[in-house]
Write a structure and sequence with these properties.
Layout: H1 15-20, H2 31-49, H3 52-61, H4 71-100, H5 102-121, H6 126-139, H7 143-153, H8 159-167, H9 169-184, H10 187-190, H11 192-195, H12 198-202, H13 206-226, H14 241-251, H15 265-269, H16 272-300, H17 312-332, H18 334-340, H19 343-351, H20 354-360, H21 371-402, H22 409-432
Length: 443
């Protein structure tokens, strides 16, 4: 599979430049604000991925098709519904946050995500599932606003720590979500001594939705209490010399644009690196989302048909390996890479890992009857894919460093993430529609 990768214009965001010019003041990390932001970020992957281990089984119980081998199309539609509604909301949330501030968008979106996830647990038809995932997608559109908050909380003296820390909460959520979904689905059957009630027999997937929805609700409450506003135009006048220096130091990364001006999409796209990040980001998100979708379907497919024939719990454990690998890479490797390598070159290296991941996947079937070798092979494959996923974190750094002004950071993040979500919306349904057959890799 060929993965198109738009070249990122050269090294305006390279870390080496900052390393050669020592900063006179190193900004301390805003620990509390970063912790709250990371907690909010965690809820997106937790609520998004908790459905992965059981979605195929869920849809099969609805008797949508006679041949269960075709169920992948409907699970792809469910995932694409989430992504489509995130797509149509993400730029608008980002633009609205430039007017009313970041804080109300972040808090409102997190409360909405909690509600949408709880509603999913009470669904019993395809249309109800799609409706709940559409609402969750709309609320997850705040992702670009979260990226903007991160950019406004940090500067070039501490971003090599803050961005990897923030970035690891997606893989952490990708561990926690599948574990919750895989272990808590069908609780009346798995844990009859505790959950053998008619409610859980009628709604066998309520418990994982209730658990993740409650986590999102608590996170929203915490954000309401502790999260402060970060938008530059919503800040009080800065009087202390240290704070003035921080503000001045952050502004060095931005081009000259009138304060609080609203740029059009065409104006943003006229900036070469923002345009390149948007195009390449679309490729990145399509490739990454397609990989995750195909991997889940590959695990669910029977061994004679080229898959691994995993049950929901085992699929959850396999996905947890991906998250564990990503956490290790984000925390142990990425900070050093950001300090010592040019950000543009690092981004392109990560993108080059995707063809390797796709080539390796079909070979897992060769080890289907050898458990030890199989799990070693799965770990290698998913580690390669998580190295490739570092491109997401590097992209955030590049957007922050090349936004036209502090007052257009939200729009810049919104545009790049709009491009990513456009790909995310079509990737699952495309790869599961029959155009791609897991196990053979043929069209």
């Amino acid at each position: 599979m060929n993965v198109p990768s738009a070249p990122i214009p050269a090294d305006s965001g390279d870390a080496a430049t900052d390393n050669n010019t020592p900063a006179p003041y190193k900004t301390p990390l805003p620990v509390l604000q970063l912790a709250v932001l990371c907690a909010v970020r965690l809820m997106d992957p937790v609520t998004f991925t908790q459905i992965f281990p059981y979605i195929n089984e869920f849809l099969a119980k609805l008797h949508l098709v006679k041949d269960e081998s075709q169920i992948g199309f409907y699970s792809g539609v469910v995932e694409s519904t989430f992504a489509f509604f995130q797509l149509i909301s993400i730029y608008h949330w980002a633009k609205l946050s430039e007017k009313i501030g970041r804080r109300p968008i972040v808090i409102g979106g997190t409360f909405g995500l909690a509600l949408a996830t709880l509603l999913l647990g009470f669904t019993s038809s395809l249309w109800a599932i799609l409706l709940s995932r559409a609402l969750a997608g709309l609320c997850s559109g705040i992702a670009a606003v979260l990226h903007s908050v991160l950019g406004e909380l940090t500067d070039s003296t501490n971003q090599h720590i803050a961005f990897p820390l923030y970035g690891l909460f997606w893989p952490l959520g990708s561990i926690l979500g599948p574990i919750i979904g895989g272990s808590l689905a069908n609780p009346a059957e798995k844990y009859p001594d505790v959950f053998d009630y008619s409610l859980f027999r009628t709604y066998p997937y309520l418990l994982p939705c209730l658990t993740t929805g409650l986590l999102a609700f608590v996170t929203a409450v915490v954000a309401t209490i502790f999260l402060t506003e970060t938008h530059p135009s919503k800040q009080p006048s800065i009087n202390t010399s240290g704070a003035e220096h921080i503000s001045s130091h952050r502004s060095l990364n931005f081009m000259s644009v009138p304060e609080q001006s609203q740029l059009t999409i065409l104006q943003l796209l006229s900036i070469p690196i923002i345009r390149a990040l948007s195009v390449s980001g679309a490729s990145l998100c399509f490739t990454a989302t397609a990989f995750d979708s195909v991997f889940v379907l590959f695990c669910y497919t029977s061994i004679p048909e080229g898959g691994l024939d995993f049950n929901t719990s085992t699929i959850g454990y396999a996905l947890a390996i991906a998250g564990t690998s990503s956490i290790a890479i984000q925390t142990l490797i990425l900070p050093s890479l950001l300090r010592h390598f040019g950000h543009a070159h690092l981004y392109n290296f990560c993108m080059s890992m995707w063809p390797i991941a796709y080539i390796l996947m079909p070979f897992l079937n060769l080890f289907a009857y050898e458990p030890v070798q199989l799990w070693i092979a799965i770990t290698v494959l998913l580690s390669v894919s998580r190295v490739a996923c570092l491109a997401y974190s590097v992209s955030m750094v590049l957007v922050k460093e090349n936004a036209p002004s502090p007052y257009a950071l939200g729009q810049s993040n919104g545009l790049v993430m709009f491009a990513m979500c456009a790909s995310r919306a079509v990737a699952p349904a495309f790869v599961r529609s029959g155009l791609f057959h897991p196990g053979t890799g043929s069209r």
